[in-house]
Amino acid sequence: MNELKLLLENPIVMSVLLAFVPIVFILVYALVTLYGEMKVAAHIQNRLAYMENGWHGTLQPFADILKLLQKEDIIPTAADKFLFSLAPYLVFVGTYASFAVLPFSSGFIGSNIDLGILYLVAASSLVVVGLLMSGWASNNKWSLFGSLRSAAQIVSYEIPGVLAILGVVMVLGTMNMQTMTQMQDGGIQNWLIFGGNFALGQKLALIPFMFILFVIYLLSSMAEVNRTPFDLPEAESELVQGYNTEYSGMKFAIFYLAEYANLFLVSAVVVILFFGGWTSPFGSFMGGPVWSAFWFIMKGMFFVFVNIWLRWTLPRLRVDQLMYVSWKVLTPFALFCIIAIGFIMVV
Amino acid sequence: MYEIIFYFFAAVTIGSAGVVVFSRNIVYSAFALFFTFFGVAGIYVLLNADFLAVTQLLIYVGGILVLILFGVMLTTNTVSVDIKAKSLNTLPAVSVVAALAGLLAGMIWTTDWFMSKNMSEITAQTTSKEIGSALITTHLLPFEVASVVLLVAIVGAAMMARRESVKTQISNSK
Lengths: 347, 174
Known about the structure:
The structure holds 2 protein chains of 2 kinds.
Chain A lengths: L1 H8 L1 H9 L1 H24 L15 H11 L10 H18 L4 E3 L2 E2 L6 H22 L3 H32 L4 H6 L17 H25 L11 H4 L9 H26 L13 H24 L7 H28 L1
Antiparallel strand pairs in A: 1-2
Chain B lengths: L1 H21 L3 H21 L3 H26 L14 H21 L17 H9 L3 H34 L1
Helix pairs in contact in B: 1-2, 2-3
């Protein structure tokens, strides 16, 4: 027992253990979302979906995982074997690295660095490289087109997304995600979407701009995770399946896991920026480290649900519409909001 | 511990830089560049330059590397291309490289490096606030000049892209 205690006090062992906390969360969350996505889709489209295994098919995700685990791992002969094998891991590493700065609760954050949100944006740019790598290494036209579309989309939507983040950083005056959350503590009225914890005049002036920034960030985050209405990289009718067409078995599973992890990541960022992160909506009531983890995950899951909801409701955009929305609508609005917020924060 | 991490990042940087230079496949060179940038960012972190490290990742990996990859993928066939990998202009190249290597080596030897016996003694501090205030006070002019230059470049790029589309429109209408 003493040896175990000594081992746990070693900072290296401790940090390695802490680094595994998000992966445990991601695996459980992926199972829930796998089931949730199918069920939500089915109810929206008036279908049944999983019904056979367990109550309303609750055991189906486990069966799906088992199936994925034992599938044959095929590498096409014409593919570039090294890059083909490396790409899924790179995509997942880029997503997972971003989880390091997510404040899951008032008591847990992987790395409480000062540049939190900037680091998150930088780490998610690794995903683009991984996607391009997978598309090129597959040696398949559809994969390549899918990955090029995906990269172009992520790079263009990063601009309004980062501008929206910049607006929030200007209001709060910090890039540290834990401090950002703490500044919105104290109840639902202090969340940034409701004007934050400021004097009444400033608060009322901020509300419309915060709402616009929220919509801008929500749209660009949906584009960054490549989901409908922005799922051109995976447009089945044109591209088979996009960048992961040639992947099978465990490598495909890792792409899938990375996609779901990314979905939670962007939802969590929406929550931290505009909906008070882990803070309880009732002030100090139902606060504390455990409750705050509950609130964080619940709020995050709500936005995951919004993503799923929109995915199964809206049709896909055309490529030119996609670029139009990013460059001619979202970016000018975000710039306008930044200027307005600058004036509000100075006055 | 810090030494192990440092040597790891140094090895990643130098090894992948070797691949960038010596690889016969231009796509491999482009992808190896990713690991070079990543290794350099890691070394910046060890040097307590957190803002620089994150910016390195954001600009070089998220921007420049993606641009290079797009260029490589769109200009060559998707199958591996035979780029010229033989030596050209050996004499001028050797002289330029020798001069550059001499300059760098001289600088490394003459600089009075700050060395700490114990790396963990140095407390981590953040640099973003200092960088921000320095940019907006002492270095305001270079900062503004750089932003104007970038703006001109963006306008120029937009101009070039638009002119081509106007031309194709005219040729289409004919």
